[in-house]
Structures
1.
Amino acid sequence: MKSILVVALVAFGISPLTGLAAQQGILNEAQRSQVIAVNATGSTSLMSLESQLSGKANAAGAKSYRMISTSGSSSLYGTATVYN
């Protein structure tokens, strides 16, 4: 049940995080020239997980990223697609 809530929150973009260099977003096909995936683990909240993924996206030189999966209960794991 918790994973359904987490997926719903991510799907609807509910996040108070702003001002990050790499922003979650949708790019058109022409802008998706280079796509990689980043993973993060060990977070105890969705906000913390998103922060970890954002940091890794920034380190990879991302223009934007999209969280594509999360799982876990007390320790979260997540994956994001990074668009350069």
2.
Amino acid sequence: MKKTSIKASEFDTKFDNGEDITEFLDLENALKPSNKPKRVSIDFPEWMVTELDKVSKRLGVTRQSVIKVFISEKLKEKSL
């Protein structure tokens, strides 16, 4: 099946309107991002750890989860 091509703005509009966009995707060559965890070590100032602990307690999640979410949000911002 030959894929049809359209402008990115048209693709975005179709997606936003809930239309079927699969005919415009190359699913045979699609790649999944690696979600394999990789351990890193980082030192934070004491005040940051205290603030991270306050946030994690308020949200009922681990400090590590808060750090992951904060970093993920910032990376998404930067990639736009």
